[in-house]
Structures are given as C-alpha cells and as structure tokens.
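Hello, quick one for you while I still have it in my head. No rush at all, and the record is pasted right below.
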Amino acid sequence: MRQMKPAHDPAPSRLAYRLNRLMLRPVVRRFLRYGLPVLAVSAGVAFWASDQDRRDGAMDRIAEIRRQIEERPEFMVRLMVVEEATSDVAADIREVLSIDFPVSSFDLDLDGLQEAVEELDAVADASVRIRSGGVLEIEVAERKPAVIWRDGEGLRLLDATGHRVAPVAARTKRPDLPLIAGQGANEAVGEALQLFATAMPIRNRLRGFLRVGERRWDVVLDRDQRIMLPEQDPVTALAKAIQLDVAQDLLERDITVVDFRTPHRPVLRLGLTAMDALYKTAFETETGSQ
C-alpha cells in the first residue's frame, strides 16, 4: 500500500511569522527604507576614504573646481572707489587696505575691511559693499573737527566727543577752531565748546582754554590776561565776566587775572603798571595826610 504524503500546512512557519510581525513595526520599515541605504553608502564612503591617496586626490580636485568658480569674470573685483571722503582720508584708506586688484570677491572679507576702515581716526562710520561691474565701494562718514588739542606730542584735531581726527601742523591751519590744552582737556571738549560759544564778544582776543587739574578751565586772552573759572558751572561764570567787561571795560584795564573761581566774590589781579600807580596813589595820600 502506497504511503500518503502529508498535506501542505498553509500556516506560516514560526520564523516567517516573527519576520512578518517585525515588518509591521514602523521603526523597522523606516530603517529598511532609509537607514539601511544610508549605512550601506556610509560604509562604501568609509572604505573609499580609507586610502590617503584617494582622499588627497579628491581634495585637490575640489580645490581646483572651487578656484575655477571663484576666478570666473563675474566674481572678480577690479576697482575700489571711496565715497564721501576727502582726498587725504581716501589715501589713508587705500594704504590701510592695500588690496592688489584684480581679486576674487570670495577672497574679500567685507566685515574685516569695514573694521579696518573704521579704525582710522578720521572715520566715524563706514560701509563696504561690492557693486556690480566688479567695483569695491567704500562709503565713509568722516569725523568733523571741533577743537584743536595741544598735548605733549603736538597739535591734534578732535571732534565734539573728544575723539582724535587728525594731527595738524600749526594753529594757523585752523583759526576757526578753539584751542584747548592741559591734561584731561580732551575729556571735556563739550564744555570747552560751550565756553567758546559764550566767549563770542571777546572772540577776537581769545587765545584758548587751559584745563587746570583736570577739573576746571582758564580762559587765556591776549596781553597775558586770564579768566579763571570755577569747577561748577563755568559757562555762567564766564558770561558774568563778559558782562562786567561790556559794562565797565574790565578786560581793557591793566588786569592780568580775573579770578571767578568763587563766582559771588570775584578777585582781580592787577598788572605791574596798575600796581605801581596804586602804590603811588596810596603813598601820596598817606604823605598828604601827614
């Protein structure tokens, strides 16, 4: 009697059942769709990059391609223009930047160039950009000289904030600006400018403002005259001194110092001629009374 073959069991095997259940998980499906290809590609790249010669050759090819792109004509800068600047400041900017044209725009650090320009004393603000046509445009706002400061090294122009602008060869180069001197004078430029505006009636006799003890001002006039101002509210004290001059020709007399350090009790220091006349009058009065 022929032996009968067992009927085929339609149920999946235990391994197939577990694999089917595993494939139902979203994490496994995402791994097989994305993670496994990434791992395979990464393994291939790692194997390829394990050879130093292949790595060096690839870097050389990448560098060559980059160089060819950067040196394309549309990316080359051939000219620099400086806007809103005097000829001296423009020359200083060109000297500081010292760019050899033509140069690729990829090789220009615009932020670094802007910082270098703004470090110049005469420049208050600057903007740097590359214009169409391969032009490097630098637009600057220059500091406006407000005073001449005499320090231990010579004469310098300062702006209204006390920031250095440029050296000046001689006082006569800028007769329109007030002269300040003394230690700490550059820290009180704003107050000096107020005094300069107040001194308009005696402007033709004004020689400058001397900072004393880093706390107060002396107004220096011609004929070796001086107005000593207080530490507090010197503008008002100077205005009072000028009022006395207008009313009584105070500064036209033989007086060397008008001391307003105590505003409610000003003190006058007479010149030699006035002192001699005063002594002579006192002597004659004393002799006559005898």
